[in-house]
Design brief:
Elements lengths: L3 H4 L12 H13 L4 E4 L2 E4 L11 H7 L6
Antiparallel strand pairs: 1-2
Protein backbone atom coordinates (compact mmCIF):
# COMPACT_ATOMS: atom_id res chain seq x y z
CA UNK A 1 0.00 0.00 0.00
CA UNK A 2 1.32 3.48 -0.87
CA UNK A 3 2.16 5.96 1.87
CA UNK A 4 0.10 9.06 2.65
CA UNK A 5 3.05 11.13 1.47
CA UNK A 6 2.45 9.78 -2.03
CA UNK A 7 -1.34 9.47 -2.04
CA UNK A 8 -2.48 12.29 0.23
CA UNK A 9 -3.94 12.37 3.72
CA UNK A 10 -6.85 9.95 4.08
CA UNK A 11 -8.61 11.99 6.78
CA UNK A 12 -8.96 15.74 6.26
CA UNK A 13 -9.04 16.23 10.04
CA UNK A 14 -5.28 15.53 9.94
CA UNK A 15 -4.44 18.38 7.55
CA UNK A 16 -1.94 20.77 9.12
CA UNK A 17 -3.80 23.78 7.71
CA UNK A 18 -7.46 23.69 6.67
CA UNK A 19 -8.03 25.91 3.66
CA UNK A 20 -10.01 25.32 0.48
CA UNK A 21 -6.73 25.08 -1.46
CA UNK A 22 -5.26 22.43 0.89
CA UNK A 23 -8.56 20.54 0.84
CA UNK A 24 -8.74 20.52 -2.97
CA UNK A 25 -5.02 19.73 -3.40
CA UNK A 26 -5.34 16.72 -1.10
CA UNK A 27 -8.55 15.54 -2.77
CA UNK A 28 -6.93 15.91 -6.22
CA UNK A 29 -3.79 14.02 -5.12
CA UNK A 30 -5.86 11.14 -3.75
CA UNK A 31 -8.08 11.06 -6.85
CA UNK A 32 -5.03 10.98 -9.14
CA UNK A 33 -3.81 7.92 -7.23
CA UNK A 34 -7.14 6.10 -7.49
CA UNK A 35 -8.16 6.91 -3.91
CA UNK A 36 -11.78 7.94 -4.42
CA UNK A 37 -12.74 7.75 -0.73
CA UNK A 38 -11.45 10.28 1.81
CA UNK A 39 -12.71 10.96 5.32
CA UNK A 40 -13.51 14.09 7.27
CA UNK A 41 -13.66 12.53 10.71
CA UNK A 42 -16.49 9.99 10.47
CA UNK A 43 -17.86 11.40 7.19
CA UNK A 44 -16.80 9.70 3.97
CA UNK A 45 -16.24 11.92 0.92
CA UNK A 46 -16.34 10.11 -2.42
CA UNK A 47 -15.32 11.35 -5.86
CA UNK A 48 -16.79 9.76 -8.99
CA UNK A 49 -13.80 8.28 -10.85
CA UNK A 50 -15.69 8.10 -14.17
CA UNK A 51 -14.06 4.72 -14.77
CA UNK A 52 -14.40 1.21 -13.44
CA UNK A 53 -12.29 0.43 -10.39
CA UNK A 54 -11.75 -3.06 -9.08
CA UNK A 55 -12.77 -2.16 -5.53
CA UNK A 56 -16.18 -3.77 -5.19
CA UNK A 57 -15.36 -7.46 -5.50
CA UNK A 58 -15.66 -10.08 -2.77
CA UNK A 59 -12.04 -9.51 -1.69
CA UNK A 60 -12.78 -5.89 -0.76
CA UNK A 61 -16.13 -6.68 0.81
CA UNK A 62 -14.50 -9.32 3.01
CA UNK A 63 -11.61 -7.02 3.90
CA UNK A 64 -13.84 -4.20 5.16
CA UNK A 65 -16.96 -6.00 6.37
CA UNK A 66 -17.61 -5.22 10.03
CA UNK A 67 -14.61 -2.86 10.31
CA UNK A 68 -14.86 0.41 12.16
CA UNK A 69 -13.12 3.53 10.89
CA UNK A 70 -11.78 5.69 13.64
Amino acid sequence: MASEENTGIRDFVLLDEITINKFMDNLRLRFNHGQIYTYIGEVCVSVNPYRTLNIYGNDYVTRYKGKFHG
